[in-house]
Amino acid sequence: MPGIARKIVICAAIDGLIIQPLSPKGQRPLQPVRVRYGDSSISAVPRDQLPDTSTPESSFEAFGILGLITVSRLSYLVSITRRQQVAQIFGFPIYVVTEVAVTPCTSKADADKSIRRTAGHLRRQSAHALSDDGESSDEETELSIAALDEVEDAVMEEGDSRHDSNSNRSSVAEDVIRRRGSYGRFAQSWFSRSGWTMDQRRTMGMSISSAGSTAGVDVDSAASSVAKVPLTDDADTQTPVSTLLPKLLRTVKVLFGSSRSFYFSYDLDITRSLSQDAILPRPDVPLHAQVDSAFFWNRHILQQFMATGQESLALPVMQGFVGQRTFVVDSQPPQQDEPSAESVEMSSLTAPGSLPGSPPPGRVRDSIDLRPSEKKCLITLISRRSNKRAGLRYLRRGVNEDGFTANMVETEQIISSPTWDKSSPTHSFLQIRGSIPLFFTQSAYSLKPVPVIQHSPESNYKACKRHFERLSRHYGELQIVNLVEEHGVEESIGTQYQKNVERLNEEASGGDQIPFEWFDFHQACRGMKFENVSHLLLRMKDRLEELGSSIQEEGELIRKQKGVLRTNCMDCLDRTNVCQSSFAKHMLELQLKEDGIDMSAQLDQETMWFNTLWADNGDAVSKQYASTAAMKGDYTRTRKRDYRGALNDLGLSLARFYSGMVNDYFSQAAIDFLLGNVTAKVFDEFESDMMTKDPAVSISKMRERAVELCQKRVVADVSEEVHGGWVLISPNTANVVKSWPMEEVVLLLTNAALYLCRFDWDLDKVSSFERVHLGNVTHIKFGTYITSTIAPSHMDEMRNVGFVVEYQPGKSNVRRTNTRTLSTRGEIASKLGSQSSDSAKQQSAFVNFFSGKAKSPAIRKLAFKAPYTDSSVAVSGAGPRQTEIQQVVTICAEVERLALERQLHKDGEEARSIIDRGDIISLEAAKKNTGLLEQLGHSIKKLVWG
Asked: Domain SAC: where (predicted)?
């Protein structure tokens, strides 16, 4: 395998940013690389052109390149400046990224300024670590993203100085409400530094290692210095720069750096499990070409490096969790209690030998202290988060059209000898979690939101089927463990899930059945009796042992796990983690029993090393999806539950509620951009609407399906020939050109009539339609159609265009409404059928209903606005699209042609055009008519989310 540079020097040259890999001793020098200013093209650099880096602040060292991001034609290099070793596998270190640098590639002046700032920041951190520890620790420091002087100012501004330094208590209300900033996205410490003492954290079952390490740090103030550099010096090449660019750069630093959620190895493929027998990569293939793409999180931003053959700089990183503990077991335990020093103890990570940069040894007894029947074991826990439907709670739920689900995590538990001795068996046990594979949403504005199922039952089934077919190909046999409520708000989605799996099993051939175990966690464990999870374990024990685990011995895979348990609750966080840890504990005991160790016979059953490891895993996955540590973590750590744990969970619920409303919308847009799911236009869209769309949901496919469905439901006369169908924007009130809100509708054009179909996009149903006979069309007007002035894109007169069709009411015009109740419970039969032959009395009733029994006007109108054709959703191979004005002109011309054919004319009289060009709503009129509430609402959204 081509070597990956373990250390890199970054400096600025006249024509580009220089990345110089430092070669290990005894290896040939690695080729330096230049990222050119402006166009950000990547090329090799002759060694005689390397700049002088002898000046202390002219360069800085990094431990790897994460990638290159480009927004508004401005590029930024993202590099790893701090890392910490968290584990070792087969003697090779595994690191977590703890800090990154974002260096502009716009001009030499910008690059020099940023490099000097980064170099000074790293030098101060090293000096601080030296003064604290007595020795430099570049690879192990846990300092935060902010420079020390900025951190001190930020802490003072946040109000810590108002508290007595001897005070060691605070209320939950203070931590959650007044100091809610510490609950923000990717916060390293989710309680304030003064909020919880060490003893309180231990009592509550919280991880002690992170207590107070970075609490109170104002990440934004530190990152803002990076974002405030001049964006471009060349006036001829200046382009509009998104005002959200500084916020994006801060998000990049927090996401990749201070979140401590990205892991990497220079020597191993940590994206693959031991059961795949591929964790040791092939030496003749670059590492980035071997890793599992589902867990390769920086693939998109590394694309330019990989495309130019820069294998030494292409370092894949994985989001998730990696943790490790050693423990002692006795194959022949004494029959009576002995001093506690001989008991099983929890330890921190210990690495065999003297690996450079390894964490210090823990409290596990040295080998010379072990009895002949005792031995050390190593437990390694790896969680891998999929990037296929990546995102945040409430913004990424359920499944997409390709069968990928939100919060899909593969968790592997490995039991080995501390030295990874090949003669000793190495056990691997895999589990997976993921959102319920249905199309559904939940509101972020409720502590107990009701899930709303979207789209038709058939669409849900197809996506569910694709999901399980993919899992079966990858993992083998499957066992579903569903933890949602059997009664209450979660029942509807759980029932639909079960029905889809039952249908899947009915259509499956042979033994490809997927057992479905529904365990109502809340009902079974009500009253904080989480020990009742043992009932689920008893039900799943035989299935667990049937699926088994993988065993590797002498470097060969001698047994492979037959399949996996797929566990879910609504978020796949808290309930899921409790149950998965229970399954893993059972498999641990089973694996050790195969090696001659009976865990039930051990003197000390307080396996805190196991509980803490799984609780840390739950916290990591929860922070990445829901912004806070996992709830029910006190039980996972201590196997005890009391009122303090319940109060802690209340605080976490409030924190999740706050993050869901405030932080997640922009963070979701940033994640989609960094993964390559959307283009940089997503930030312009976000700035306009203060919302984020789901790029996995194909808008074009949804619109095509809607047009097809409307055509089947509303065109009753088989003799009518459909000439076109479009999804347009229209007022939600009849006979007006503006209303609030506007909505997407389907416009059908046949050789006889126009059909305006109002559509329920969640349920894929036609809710109502209006038919206008073409012979009654009297006038068509197209032009500027501005309905809002709250964002610059809304006021673009070239993109905001539409048309108005005026017609004379007549008996040939029809309106129909689907009055049946729309519900997510059960299948909704709402076929509209052929309804064109209703009596005049029924028609009059519908007219009265819509018009409030008022007399119909002489001329009525239908208003349509073209949706934006240029979207941020990244579509490969897409051809040229019509502009908004081209689409409007095309539709108007076709309507006019067919309308004139239907209208009566005197013999010899030439038909006159019925199309005029003019403003529907001009920019000036829109500015006058934009309501105060509309402006206020957008301003509040921008203040909160932007």
From this structure: 258-627
